[in-house]
Write a structure and sequence with these properties.
Blueprint: E1 6-8, E2 41-44, E3 47-50, H1 51-54, E4 65-67, E5 83-87, H2 91-97, H3 102-122, E6 127-134, H4 142-165, E7 169-173, H5 181-194, E8 202-209, H6 211-227, H7 238-243, E9 255-258, E10 277-280, H8 290-302
Parallel strand pairs: 5-6, 5-9, 6-8, 7-8, 9-10
Antiparallel strand pairs: 1-4, 2-3
Helix pairs in contact: 2-3, 3-4, 4-5
The structure holds farnesyl diphosphate.
GO biological process, one term: plastid membrane organization
Enzyme class: transferase
Keywords: Transferase
């Protein structure tokens, strides 16, 4: 059990006391950090309860709340990005720098990915999408591709199952037909299990995925509907195209983090990134830790998003 760290009379410690409490008149689930039952325990009118139970209650202005798990300093829970995309780059360089085989770089990347998901969930992020394998990655040495395919199975069997135990949902993007049959089967099982109403953060894994693939597939689906007379050419608009992308139902990334110092998006979610805030870090993915995540989220919270408008 965690120890009590500080009192929270109104909202987060970073929240100015003169501002209106975020959850003053509404359900506590609107306060992202509190919506995660694993991340905090609240003291509510002299009784301790988990955030999940607190959700069923209503707060009054004079309720005293004790947050058991500390929310990182410098982060505003209410300004958290809803969807964080991550291009997990630099596994091989990480291994090479240490004189290790490439496989160990990917293994270290797998550990960093699991921790990333746990931390994002803790901070109230709703969706984390990760680019695990692009449609171009097949040109890598056969041995590495084979390792990655079996490693993905290993991670999905162990880590993602564990994440689902944390109330997270796991789903996949990309063309599955080229993946090994056993991996395809595993992915389907995980997604079916997802239907078993987990309510926590969503982890979306891009596997044999790319932005161009996604847009091309969507275009074909629409073209077929036009050919069959289900849709007219004039029905085609941005919203319709979005509905035919694999990410339909998932909000566009608010923040995209790419590790390893490369300054490109490498065919990841090309449509969806139109107004995403981009952050490039000079760190190899296996070294990406909680402090880096907090720094990235804090940097995001400093950005002013204008979506082409003129709000200053
Ligand atoms: C199930 C699941 C999603 C597991 C996650 C494992 C994981 C982190 C996979 C990423 C693989 C990959 C192509 C990384 C990019 O670094 P790189 O190999 O391109 O490294 P480099 O830029 O140094 O060459």
């Amino acid at each position: 059990m965690l120890s009590l760290q500080y009192y929270l009379p109104v909202c987060s410690p970073n929240y100015h006391m003169n501002k209106r409490p975020f959850f003053y008149s509404s359900s506590i689930t609107k306060f992202p950090h509190f919506s995660n039952p694993n991340s905090c325990v609240l003291k509510f009118r002299n009784s301790i309860c988990g955030a999940a139970d607190a959700d069923k209650k209503r707060f009054n202005n004079d309720d005293q709340i004790v947050l058991v798990d500390q929310f990182p300093e410098g982060l505003e829970p209410e300004l958290m990005p809803k969807h964080v995309g991550v291009i997990m780059d630099g596994n091989r360089r990480w291994a090479k720098n240490r004189g290790l085989p490439v496989q160990l770089g990917h293994r270290a990347g797998g550990k960093a990915m699991k921790q990333l998901a746990i931390n994002c969930n803790k901070f109230g992020v709703k969706v984390v999408s990760v680019f695990a394998f692009s449609t171009e990655n097949w040109i890598r040495p056969k041995e590495e591709v084979e390792f990655l395919m079996s490693f993905f199975e290993e991670v999905i069997k162990s880590d993602t199952k564990e994440l689902m135990g944390h109330d997270m949902r796991v789903s996949f993007l990309g063309n599955r037909s080229r993946l090994p049959k056993s991996l395809q089967h595993l992915i389907s099982c995980v997604e079916e299990e997802e239907a078993k109403d987990n309510k926590g953060m969503r982890l979306v894994i891009g596997m044999n995925y790319s932005g161009r693939y996604d847009i091309t597939e969507a275009t074909q689906k629409i073209a077929r509907k036009v050919k069959d007379g289900v849709l007219g050419v004039e029905d085609i608009n941005e919203s319709l195209l979005e509905q035919h992308l694999e990410t339909n139902g998932i909000s566009n990334p608010d923040l995209l983090i790419r590790t390893s110092g490369e300054l490109r998006v490498s065919n990841y979610m090309l449509w969806q990134l139109a107004y995403t805030e981009l952050l490039f870090l000079n760190k190899l993915f296996p070294d990406f830790n909680e402090a880096d995540l907090v720094e990235a989220l804090a940097a995001f919270q400093q950005r002013r998003r204008r979506y082409g408008g003129h709000k200053y």
